From TrEMBL:
One of its GO terms (molecular function) is kynureninase activity. It catalyses: 3-hydroxy-L-kynurenine + H2O = 3-hydroxyanthranilate + L-alanine + H(+); L-kynurenine + H2O = anthranilate + L-alanine + H(+). This is Kynureninase. The gene is kynU. Keywords: Hydrolase, Pyridine nucleotide biosynthesis, Pyridoxal phosphate. InterPro entries: Kynureninase, PyrdxlP-dep_Trfase, PyrdxlP-dep_Trfase_major, PyrdxlP-dep_Trfase_small. NCBIfam families: kynureninase (TIGR01814). Pyridoxal 5'-phosphate binds at residues 99-100, 133-136, 176, 205, 208, 230, 260, 286. Belongs to the kynureninase family. Its EC number is 3.7.1.3. The modification N6-(pyridoxal phosphate)lysine is found at residue 231. Its cofactor is pyridoxal 5'-phosphate. Homodimer. The lineage of its organism: Bacteria, Pseudomonadati, Pseudomonadota, Betaproteobacteria, Burkholderiales.
Length: 418
């Protein structure tokens, strides 16, 4: 459909079952926010939640709040709220630390599990994509160099290489479910079967999946998963991340960051470490309570809908954006790098352009907030909980004006954060 007009998009909004959830978020007037895949919008409830934690729980009750306000159990309680969004069971997820640190734990645990096998001396390869988010590669690289036990990274350039790359020497397949640049979505179940057939384990980074894409970790029989809470889950800038360890792996989940919160009896103050037998063994040290508390505000909103409904709208929004951009901006040599097929697409859309960074900055100046990723990619995130169809139409209208009139500065100086 190429004759889509704004009234048509307004009709879609009027029929949208998720439209009422938009009122749950603080969205600045005059801004079309298409960067929720990088930092989600603020739930209105987060401000009051933070105020209560700071003023009442910390201000008035002070240290009593570890018990009275349930601070000590917060990583597990929030993990249980998150679990249904990723196909996990209760007591399999904790929210803690950063995605990078949780990756370190999960990679270490996977290598430890593989080291117990009879073929451990020949199972030394970690497979990931060269286009994976850099921190995933860096953490694996850093850990394997530090161990100095012959582990090596094998970087593939295309998912099509996975079937031939995964062999008897593969210890771990570590992939991001939705690629941060392109929005390409992996078939988690299919790849996990490939890995398990060769005796390898599968670790999934859900940073661009959780809260936007239907995920079923148990159905896929995955081994470990991590992800952040500040994108589609709307937990706030730098919010603690999450780690998932299925019950079948918990007793053997060992990692070197053995802090006291993962101890079986943390307040016994023993001189040696004994891991708790459950998911809390993935915790390290004392938790950042204010940051943790705000995550609940975003997770609570998901309780008012289903991931099936979120996914349906996500695909509709991204379909609409692709159709409008290609229909209205065709002469400006934009290149779509996001898959068209629904089963292969996450919830953001990326186009290349010769002056991608400059165009994104011009869009931001006009109130349309997307972001830029190397090399030459304009990235637009669509958060079904608060993005409207009319906003998609308006965003493309402004993009067309900028491109037609060339109201962008090709020599603009780049910000530190792009």
């Amino acid at each position: 459909m190429t004759n889509i007009d704004r009234p048509y998009c307004e009709t879609l909004d009027a029929q949208d079952a998720l439209a009422s959830l938009r009122t749950e978020f603080h969205l600045p007037t005059g801004m079309i926010y298409l960067d929720g895949n990088s930092l989600g919008a603020q739930p209105k409830a987060a401000f009051e939640r933070a105020r209560h934690v700071i003023q009442e729980e910390w201000g008035n009750d002070l240290i009593k709040s570890w018990n009275k306000a349930g601070w000590f159990d917060l990583p597990s309680r929030l993990g249980n709220l998150l679990a249904p969004l990723i196909g996990a069971k209760a007591e399999e997820v904790v929210i803690t630390d950063s995605t990078s640190i949780n990756l370190f734990k999960a990679i270490a645990a996977a290598l430890h599990l593989q080291a117990q096998k009879s073929d451990a001396e020949t199972r030394k390869v970690i497979i990931t994509e060269r286009s994976n988010f850099p921190t995933d590669i860096y953490m694996a690289e850093g850990l394997t160099k530090w161990l100095d036990r012959g582990y090596r990274l094998h970087l593939i350039d295309s998912p099509d290489e996975l079937a031939s790359a995964i062999k008897h020497d593969t210890a771990l397949v570590m992939l991001t479910h939705v690629n941060y640049r392109t929005g390409a979505l992996h078939d988690m179940a299919k790849i996990t079967v490939l890995a398990h057939a060769q005796g390898a384990l599968c670790l999934w980074d859900l940073a661009h999946s959780a809260g936007a894409v239907e995920v079923d970790l148990h159905q896929a029989n995955a081994d470990f998963a991590v992800g952040c809470c500040y994108k589609y889950l709307n937990g706030g800038p730098g919010a603690p991340a999450f780690i998932w360890v299925p019950q079948r792996h918990q007793a053997q989940f060992h990692h070197p960051l053995t802090g006291w919160w993962g101890h079986a009896a943390p307040f016994a103050m023993q001189a040696s470490f004994t891991a708790t037998p459950d998911i809390r063994r993935a915790l390290c040290g004392t938790q950042p309570i204010v940051s943790l508390a705000m995550i609940e505000s975003g997770l609570t909103i998901f309780g008012k809908t289903t991931m099936a409904a979120v996914r349906q709208k996500s695909l509709a929004l991204t379909d609409l954006f692709i159709q409008l951009v290609e229909a209205r901006c065709a002469r400006h040599q934009l290149g779509l790098v996001t898959p068209r097929h629904h089963a292969q697409r996450g919830s953001h859309v990326s186009f290349t352009h010769a002056h991608a960074y400059a165009v994104i900055q011009a869009l931001i100046a006009r109130g349309v907030v997307g972001d830029y990723r190397e090399p030459g990619i304009m990235r637009f995130g669509f958060t079904p909980l608060y993005t409207s169809y009319a906003e998609v139409w308006d965003a493309v209208e402004i993009l067309q004006e900028i491109l037609d009139q060339k109201t962008y500065d090709a020599n603009i100086q780049r910000h530190t954060v792009t």
